[in-house]
Write a structure and sequence with these properties.
The protein is α/β, with parallel strands linked by helices. The chain has 18 helices and 15 strands. The strands form four sheets. Strands 4-10-9-8-7-5-6 form a seven-stranded mixed beta sheet, with helices on both faces. Strands 11-12-15-14 form a four-stranded antiparallel beta sheet. Strand 7, helix 8 and strand 8 form a beta-alpha-beta unit. Helix 4 (78-95) runs parallel beside helix 12, helix 13 (305-327) runs parallel beside helix 17 and helix 15 (354-362) crosses helix 17 (400-421). The chain is globular and about 70 Å long. The two termini are 24 Å apart. The mean pLDDT is 97.
């Protein structure tokens, strides 16, 4: 008997995605091939451990031609080994890494595995302040990692919106962190990886870690600098967002790759194997082989020339949208964007909080999220800002004309928010206008179909 209730909800979500525009920068649309791999029979298979790591250089055919002994705890791995080896080889090529662990179930799991690999309880990590654009797993007190390790936060320059590198260097020299972490979820600049490497060299035994979850697709497409190319030891990422894969995590590293069943010396050179042991059995159980298969498909797609064009288009669309918003009176943190992410100070722009704008945009089929801005004085659930990006709408094929249109809609929606909140006009007085705008959004959405649906 089919579970009609759940499948009706799935159809409802399909319709929501088809008829609206996704502006949340951490969301994207996957291809039909990625969806098919996620729904494959690999979900039936247990594969604790790892495949062999030998002979991963060269083409996919070269990788498939080799069948080294694996490091698994179950039999029947002849196809899972090939799938995971392809995923590893493709990720290594995409990101110029010596090793890739494709098993983390999420970006948070990937970060926690790196902490567990390199740190002892109480060790210090220097990461970006959550209120300035950092991520929960970079030291928020509500997380498990913050209860285990000592996180010290650096911030951003209020004038430029960029990382305050002088503060970062001062804190590094003062606290001698075991990890310096560059990563963020609401930051619109390109980090100065070279300067961070120079800072890290002054701290003995300091691991340089970059959490590039939001820009990994831009890195893979050659549109954003790769921290591994500058001397970072580890890069973590999700495999969704700009990378356009299934929801999951990925850890890339530089160093010596060895047998994960044997504990290596605790050195930076051995960080690939320390991480492998930390992922399994250290922080999570068996891998999700259907998700790893889908990751491999996404990596294959990211190796194509069309993906390089996609990465460039994300950034050009973000620039057009940011410029349009600025023209309409929106104040952007940092004055614009250098990646795909735009952070708007709604309170400073129009005197209304980000949650009100989020809810108003939802009414017309435009989805983004309320977000704190640096030094925000409002609470997390009604912050001053909104966060939006162009990854998903670029996947659908939208370009300059649609970016300007979205900016125009946002200007009018902000004006309506002001009239309701500041001038006490009833929302019902805008019912017809909002319905018309909803229809306009739907019409554009239908011109640019969602891949895979």
């Amino acid at each position: 008997m089919k579970d009609s209730k759940i499948f009706e909800l799935i159809e409802g979500e399909k319709q929501r995605q088809r008829e609206g525009l996704e502006l949340i920068p951490s969301e994207n649309y996957v291809s039909r091939e990625v969806l098919e791999a996620m729904g494959s029979v690999f979900t039936n298979k247990y594969s604790e451990g790892y495949p062999g790591f030998e002979d991963l250089e060269g083409s996919d055919d070269d990788v498939l031609a080799s069948e080294p002994a694996n490091h698994r705890y179950y039999g029947g791995q002849q196809f899972t080994d090939k799938v995971e080896r392809l995923a590893i080889a493709r990720a290594r090529r995409l990101f110029h890494a010596d090793h890739a662990n494709v098993q983390p179930h999420s970006g948070a799991q990937a970060n926690n595995a790196v902490y567990n690999a390199w740190l002892e309880p109480g060790d210090t990590v220097l990461g970006m302040n959550l209120g300035h654009g950092g991520h929960l797993t970079h030291g928020s007190p509500v997380t498990l990692s913050a209860k285990i390790y000592n996180f010290i936060a650096y911030g951003t320059d209020p004038e430029t919106g960029d990382i305050d590198y002088d503060e970062l260097e001062k804190l590094a020299k003062e606290h001698k962190p075991k990890i310096i972490l560059i990563g963020y979820s609401a930051f619109a600049k390109v980090p100065d990886f070279e300067r961070v490497v120079e800072i890290g060299k002054q701290i003995p035994g300091c691991l340089l870690m970059a959490d590039m979850a939001h820009v990994a697709g831009l890195i893979a497409g050659g549109a954003h600098p790769n921290p591994l190319d500058f001397g970072f030891h580890v890069m973590t990422t999700t495999t969704h967002k700009t990378l356009r894969g299934p929801r999951g995590g990925l850890i890339l590293s530089r160093g010596k790759v060895s047998n994960p069943l044997k504990k290596p010396e605790h050195t930076l050179e051995n960080i690939p194997t320390l991480i492998d042991r930390s992922v399994f059995p250290g922080t999570q159980g068996g891998p999700l082989m259907h998700i790893i298969a889908a990751k491999a498909v996404a990596f294959y797609e990211a190796e194509q020339v069309s993906f390089q064009n996609y990465a460039r288009n994300i950034m050009s669309n973000a620039k057009v949208l940011a410029d349009t918003l600025i023209k309409h009176g929106f104040k952007l943190v940092g004055g614009g964007t250098e990646n795909h992410l735009i952070l708007v100070d709604m309170m400073g722009s129009f005197g209304v909080d980000g949650k009100i704008m989020e809810e108003m945009m939802d009414k017309v089929g435009l989805t983004l999220n309320a977000n704190a801005i640096p030094n925000d004085t409002l609470p997390p659930f009604k912050p001053s800002g909104i966060r939006l990006g162009t990854a998903a709408i670029t996947t659908r094929g939208m370009s300059r004309t649609e970016m300007i249109k979205i900016g125009d809609w946002m200007r009018r929606l902000a004006e309506i928010c002001v009239e309701i909140e500041k001038k006490n006009k009833p929302e019902s007085s805008f019912k017809g206008e909002l319905a018309q705008m909803r229809e306009e959004v739907r019409e554009i959405a239908e011109i640019f179909p969602v891949p895979g649906i």
